[in-house]
Amino acid sequence: MTTSRKRSLLAVALVGALALAACGDDSGGKDAATTTTSTARRSTTTAAPTSTAPTRKVTDAVGTAKRWLAAVANGDDETAVALLSPRSLAKIGGADGYRRMKIELAEGWGAWGRAGDIRFTARTLPFPKDAAVVIVHGNVSQEGPPRESWNALPVVATDAGDRVEAFLDFGTISSNPSEGETLAEGDEVKITTATPSDIYVIVDDQPAFMPELRDVDTSGATWGFFPSKLEPGLHAVTVVVTREGIEAQRFELTVH
User: Which residue blocks in the chain are alpha helix, DSSP H?
Assistant: First the structure.
């Protein structure tokens, strides 16, 4: 073999070796490619729920009660009817029904409107929030000379403003001791209603509270409470029944 032929073969072998070495570096020494994926974060905003529940509140229970009592006492039918709640008007048959009751109302609620020295106290209820009970206390002449008396007049908030809710009837409400009886110190007062609906009690003109439930069935409920120490004299237990509207019934009891 000639010298030039040997050199040609050596050159080919050298090129092949270098190619193999290069292939080895590519597979083992070369860094792997890195792929980065960027994902955009989606921002979601949730709007706060908007309540559509009514937020009515009685703003002037005492003023409304005074205006209604004065209208009844003065025979101002238009004002008296306008100050009644829609539920009360529906219960008595509207303005015509009110006029049919004029004599009875004049001798009853009208006497409170004519009395000169009456104390008015408004008490709100834990529920419903759109109602109050105005407790009236003083010397009133009803079918005889003036005497100390208590009474209670519900007032509710409506879209048209505060209105008197005087005529709702949720069935029989009774008290033991009953109207006019004596309440001895330490005695329990028991209330029976013809409905299982919640009730509240107002003793005299103190804040309203819910008595303890003693028994309940489909015919109604019995509640009980022990009054705090009461001074001798005439006192009032007002029972407030809450359903679609409110009813307030007063019981006068004497403590010796």
Answer: 3-28, 61-74, 77-82, 86-92, 94-100, 102-107, 109-114
